[in-house]
Batch of 4 targets.
Target 1
Amino acid sequence: MAEILVLDDVEDATVLIGKILSKKGHSVHTFTEEDEAINFAKKQEIDLAILDIKLKKMSGIEVLVMLKESRPSMHAIMLTGYPTVETAREAISIGADEYCVKPIDRNELEEKVEQVLKKS
């Protein structure tokens, strides 16, 4: 199964995503701090990053750019509670594969993760 990094400033969100995807057999690494997630991704092979767009110190878009520098083949799904066409376009233009709106729908998350990982 896949190595998945989850970064959200709300710990409950990372726990929820971690539980959902672990049950599907994935190895899930959860973070609430951008620096920790970025450093982890530099050392560990990551198949998929699930990133919230609104974080504490920087945006999920900025984190995605940094992750793509060290892991260009990594896939990404962006999460947001504030969906706009602009943020969706920007995320996809820099390499995000998908976009999920919060609150997270378990079925939607599972489907999108499966679709994105099939692209590998």
Target 2
Amino acid sequence: MEIVHIARKEELQRKIRRMREGGISQLQVVADFDRTLTKAFVSGKKFLSSYALIREGKYLTPDYPTKAQALFEEYHPYEISSTISVAERNKKMVEWWSKHFKLMKECGMSKEVIRDIVLKGKIQFREGVLEFLQELSEKNIPILILSAGMGDIIQELLSVLGKGMSNIHLISNFYNFDENGRVVGMKNNIFIHPFNKNELEMKRTSHYFKMVQRKNVLLLGDSLGDLSMTEGIEPEVIIRIGFLNDNKEQLLEKYMQEFEVVITDDGDMEYVNEMVEEIISAKD
């Protein structure tokens, strides 16, 4: 079964050659997390997001799943709507995430929940991701992970796996905890959601200077919305790799128009790792 799809092969090869010429010092990676670095399906079942893992794991008070589902039913139609403006969708997403955060706080969200999810291996990386992260670390190639999920879970997961490396920068939703490990607030000034995951937030971080110095970008995402993650940087060369995990028949053509490479059927990272190896094999 063919899982790697490339619509414009000559254009892709030109971009790879230009990245090789730029060398390691000009390369950076920008990646989504859920269903991009992680698997989309496990044993034939759709892999749950960090929020769904908390809901299904019954970690919080008994009323949490019902109330969280009610919020989903109220706001999900705005998330998938193709008729309302981006500004209106953005407003509704902020409302949703704000209410959901307040609900999780009231229902007992804590560090213990995060640790249990990670230690029980409930989040599984896509095959080849750990090798990918290791290669970037060894070559000191920065990777920015932009996630609308729970940053504390991602950070804990990378730490447990020994991948909490200095070249990894994470923009996501982080909690503040009290002395007992219970959630008391948010560290973010803004909720990161699927429609505002872009690097404009980078300008507020010490990592921004490092990123803008590198003009060649490898972007990894699983949705068309992830294409905006490089806003705030003006790359000279960008290669976009899209993971099309489902709805292949309906979406493949559109993905191939927007991404240089499309990996379907919840495929592994072999092609991506080979591309990185090819790019960095030139002497810097």
Target 3
Amino acid sequence: METLIRSAQGGTFASDRNADVTLEVHGAPQCTAVNDVLARVGDKWSVRVVMALAGGSRRFNELRRDIAGISQRMLTRTLRGLERDGLVSRAVTASVPPRVDYALTPLGNSLRDPVARLGNWAIANIGEIEIARAAFDAESDHTKL
């Protein structure tokens, strides 16, 4: 295993936003595994389900109401994937109709902080990202002429 240290980009000031980051470089099998996990926890619906369950267990229709724009099919698929990966538990209570509750597992709870940090980073940096996109798009339009 090789460790790389990335320093702040030249011309920028070191701060807590761009401090040195340790990056472990692994072989192909580990990268494939990481990509697989990131595909699950990085998609927008999984992130929103994890954050919706951060306050405690919820029923399917509660989740569907609280996650704007998600279809029944997509919520079902997302919950199944999160359950398969051990991030969400599903509890069925025998009643008429059956009651099904979803909750974060301890592993799912451990994902809350990184997801919240990433969301906060996005909120804090969206202005800079929009400026960069506009500059890139303007330059790309200019070079097409």
Target 4
Amino acid sequence: MRAAVVREANKPLVVENIADPSPGPDDAVLRVEASGICRSDWHGWQGDWEWIGLGIELPAVLGHEFGGEVVAVGNNVRNFREGDKVTAPFHHACGRCEFCLSGRPNLCAEVFVYGFAGVHGSYAEYLLITEADSNLISLPENVAATSAAALGCRYMTGYHAIGRGRVGPGDWVAIQGAGGVGLSAIQTAAAVGAQVIAVDIDEDKLTKAKEAGASVAVNSKTENVAEAIHEVTKGGAHVGVDALGIQETITNSLSSLRKGGRHVQVGLTGSEEQGIAQIPIDAMTAGEIELVGSFGNPRPDFPGLLALVSQGRLDPGSLVEREVGLGDVNEVFDNMSEFKTKGFNIITQF
């Protein structure tokens, strides 16, 4: 099969032929119809995240946002068959540990992310899904593969973050970063009736954020973020979401909250922070500010997410910037390096 392969960190990917996958007794193989190009993949290509066990092993096939068709299943697979249109969470679950059995498979004791830690991802014509019954998710008939790829990491992550923040109608929600996760969180928060503030350094991204449902846009390059948010909300945001993962956005989110507010950390840090960030701990204590981590989206929560998409209340397809081929991944990564992407870039030509 054709695949885009990382041979060396931070060097151009090479499109080449590699061996087709074959399923074991509990596994399935998908023909990939669409694969998102995510900033998480960019981080892996950069050589980031080894400090949390998410480094890549070379050669690597990245890609963890996908939609496709089942083309082969193992003898033990009961819930899926050839021809099914499916997706899966980017965080693979074993289906057996305490977290999987308690409905939190995104925290699986044996979790891995497709494309990382030596597991091939979806920048390829075919993808192996082990423990298929515990990981595959059937797509509604009116949800296309491109929408599934958009759902696959950034959208499901944004959706879960809004849930982790316990966002309700009328809440002020400030979202730092209007990239893929940020736009997804903005659209989800607006769909549940929140008042959304988008924060970014790029005016084009802020325009896209308003199209996605933000009622207020703050340019952090030209404005004091905390002051602007406290002024417009008359006291601070109820919920802040950091969708980027740098010290500046973490600080801006926490500083923009009102007393009793909740900060949801979604973005993982890069090489500068390496997982360590400063927080105003005394102000958080005195104001009873909650800091909440949010990782992916548990498989049991997908029916609710897919129902909103199927009903048209959420529209991941609207956040697709463009469809590209395997050979275009390098260009997209270069654009990500310069923060030029404005939405989802999806591989549909393999």
